[in-house]
Write a structure and sequence with these properties.
The structure is a homotetramer of 302-residue chains. The first copy, chain A, is of the alpha/beta class and 302 residues long. Chain A is built from 13 helices and 9 strands. In chain A, strand 1, helix 1 (12-21) and strand 2 (25-29) form a beta-alpha-beta unit. The longest helix of chain A has 29 residues, at 170-198. The termini of chain A are far apart. Chains in contact: A-B, A-C, A-D, B-C, B-D, C-D. The B-D interface holds B 79, 249, 253, 256-257, 259-260, 263-267, 270-271, 273-275, 277-278, 280-281 and D 79, 249, 253, 256-257, 259-260, 263-267, 270-271, 273-275, 277-278, 280-281.
């Protein structure tokens, strides 16, 4: 299949490369030319323009950093419904937006596509840069069942699991719920490990105990925030790489806004947002989100 | 081996029964005669007194509801170091306290035992009533390595895993860290499921998605708080059975006190304590702790 | 002066009446005719339409429940900049919006007014229905200094104090900061009183002590949430009247969104939002916000 | 009157000096001789021993840093009820403990005094070092009414107001409730000011607005945490002097423990404890508690 791919950064780059590896013809576009070079080396073709990237494609995949970028790409900018690439996409093509954005924007853009006779789904991912490279991402989709079924073989070139959360926007909502819960147990894990260490326990031993007990969770088990407990996770690399605090703050912001619209009470999620906001402001915005462990350290007097 | 067993309630009863099943001679004692009857039916002998229960035993196991009860049993009451059963236990016997209590009391009683030439370890459990019945508990031990090695074959009659967290008291500390983390991800899971449901997602589908993603945790996976998502968990039985809110409040109280003694910051743990305290006060003290899901429901106007 | 007044509900009604009492000619408009009748009895004239209400006026005052309502009144609806009353207002008139809305909308509408050669300020209030009736409101204004100086004599007919927080939108921001802080000390006061009562202290005595000490705050002093401690406050009237939980939730939502846009960490504000969201969902949405006291009560078992 | 005074540090020193100024004969004792020198210069006599300090006195006043110190002074140490000065105090003397400690210890020591025929009250203070020097402290007393009436003329030499919260221990409880509420509105004030500043508002102007509105509270009004808004408060002196973060952490620890004993839910208090624990661990333990403002600052990247 011929696939137009928008956004080839930390996540989108390896995803596009995996599509190439699976035998697809990938035409990539990105506002940053340096990023395009990398995927060209992987075998993609660099589009000369956004419109060029969608010419004659069977599938469009986008992986963009914000709702504004998604709206801008497809519709041509805030409050506009022209000037974007949407109207240039063949009506038989399937449009898959993998960006993590608010559910309202996802629904709005998909609805405009549908009015035009085009089919679009939201398919944000879980699994991070590691999952993108390894092709083991989880896709959390929202949209009509048949559209998601059509997307499945494409998504399975980039990931291990494809879920349908519900109608358009539901993929975003489920992703946001997941990341809110991730933030909560990451912080909880960090404070439990610090409290254990403060009392003389070995964080590696305490981790083993809690993994075998009811405290078990993904942050403890797959992404331990205490340096040295696990290899090849950001905590053992000075919290470099991984999923930046500023990105977690973006997702927690989406979670808070989702909660506001339904008056859902999310006390743990709200506290997680506060702590990550403070942690980002304390100089950790670019570090991996497991660096929240450092928030709990005992430091020297000012 | 001959084993004296103190405290045969919801947890201790099945644990004592499993020791009988493994071929040990169990002499049980409890302040509530009705509880003794049950274990006698399982093959244990009812002791006529606490002192009778330790006569000639190789191992003493206790499973009591509070630090005061542990101190009272072994030492004879607050501020006293006599009148308890400790001095009646054979010096060659091994003393295993499985109660969940504060680490300071665990250390104090073990230190007094040691001064008398007796060996005592703390071995609180994770796994709940279900684990106690199935013999799949996790024992989280604190004490000398050789003592824990001696305890291992006895503990393995009642559980699947035996960990050494460190010296005396460390078992309690690790257990408390674990349960604090459990409370955190249980509440986080409940609020994520409610937020999803408020937006029209199916909690069962959302659970599947998060289990396959970075939000995964024990509460979601093994003890889902949304009614009907899993069978045979308290949420599907009107939150009856399981681990009562009042017991979670006790453990969270221990966690807060542990944090106070080291000035550890535990924001998520402190919030969890607040929410479980409120939830207990709202009439849920006797319900399973996964009933925190109801805290997030939208109810009718007052 | 001739004044067009939009929105004559719980707050706007008494405010319009105070303008009449001060000798101004008030032409009122509201989508709910029943509300208009009340102010007509106070001496205002009912406009036949929104456009009629601004015909020939020197000043326009609006007191509306949401950003959408403000945008709709002045601009004619979401994404539109016509069809609203703005273009019908005389360019020499001063436009004062007293609604509590987000700062972005306040800035947007004022900017559009300015492009048209019109002058608009935001002037949300503090003081509640009581302050509106007594004419003792505090106006927290954003806009050009000279515009606020022009507004001052009008505002002083309805309130006791007029502050300029900064440029357009700053009035909204300051109001939101204030109400976030109000929610925080209201909840803090309620939990302190409950903890004292749980330990046998008399909440009235404890209130007197804290009022004379460093715990003093407006909620304790002017709006005590414990029934019977003060007369003529909602807590002594079964939490009827006053400032509804749902309105506090609206303002806390604005506060959270304001924090998101600047990555400000507001842990206390976020927790306050969570607790008020839960409290509203527990059936208290229509009750006065001091009813949060009931959240802390010890209730009977479920 | 002849007064024995124990503990002449930051608080006790100026308090003892005010007793001297009021014409009383003060015999002071402190474990740190350097502190004694200062009060001797103010006109007190240095006792040669703790027992010497109570010889023939009409009143005993103690101002000590912890429950352990109070127990040690009066009873002679943990688990002991002799060796302390209590039994050396004349039975006609009145014993006033101004330390801030847990209510249980206050009740215990007073009960032992009563068994011996002695009269003791708890009288912790609010007002800080400034209030101690100026003689404007608030005394929050627990004990029999007639004992507090006897204490009143002595306390009024050191403070402006004397409250009776209830029986023995109630003074401590009320003090702890007050300081918990203080911590809550201090943090709330700091985050509101930071959020305003992040949006371009002047913290001094925002402070004026909130002081005139429903956000008003002691932290904002008397102890503004933003540097430069008020003169002569710690925020304008690099957060030196005042009430140290570590002392606020001690008081919040007492509040948490008080809440645990009655299962009172104190979400705001628990969060305040977490934030002050983190802030202390971030190097601010010795700084004034209004330095929590710095927790909210935006700092450079790590």
């Amino acid at each position: 299949m011929k696939i137009g791919f928008f956004g080839v950064g930390h996540m989108g780059g390896p995803m596009a490369a995996n599509l190439v590896k699976a035998g697809h013809e990938v035409v990539a576009f990105d506002l940053m030319p340096a990023l395009l070079e990398t995927v060209v080396q992987e075998g993609a073709r660099a589009a000369s323009s956004a419109v060029d990237a969608v010419a004659g494609v069977d599938v469009v995949v986008s992986m963009l950093p914000s709702a504004g970028a998604v709206r801008g790409l497809y519709l041509g900018g805030q409050d506009k419904v022209d000037g974007g690439v949407l109207s240039h996409i063949d009506k038989s093509a399937l449009i898959i937006d993998c960006s993590t954005i608010d559910a309202d924007t996802a629904r709005d853009v998909a609805a405009i596509a549908q009015e035009q006779g085009r089919v679009m789904i939201d398919a944000p991912v879980s699994g991070g840069v590691g999952g993108a490279k390894a092709g083991t991402l989880t896709f959390i989709c929202g949209g009509p069942e048949d559209a998601i079924d059509r997307a499945r073989p494409v998504l399975e070139c980039m990931g291990a699991q494809v879920f349908r959360a519900g109608d358009n926007g539901a993929g975003q909502l489920a992703k946001i719920c997941n990341n809110m819960l991730l933030a909560i147990h990451m912080i909880g894990t960090a404070e439990a490990l610090q409290m254990g260490a403060d009392h003389g326990l070995d964080p590696a031993v305490l981790s083993d105990i809690m993994k075998a007990s009811s405290g078990d969770n993904w942050s403890l088990d797959k992404y331990n925030p205490w340096p040295g407990v696990m290899e090849n996770v950001p905590s053992s690399k000075d919290y470099e790489g991984g999923f930046a605090v500023k990105l977690m703050n973006k997702d927690l912001g989406l979670a808070l806004q989702a909660g506001l619209s339904t008056q859902s009470a999310t006390p743990m999620g709200n506290l997680a947002k506060s702590l990550y906001a403070a942690h980002g402001n304390h100089g950790y915005a670019e570090k991996d989100f497991s660096s929240i462990q450092r928030f709990f350290r005992h430091k020297e007097s000012k």
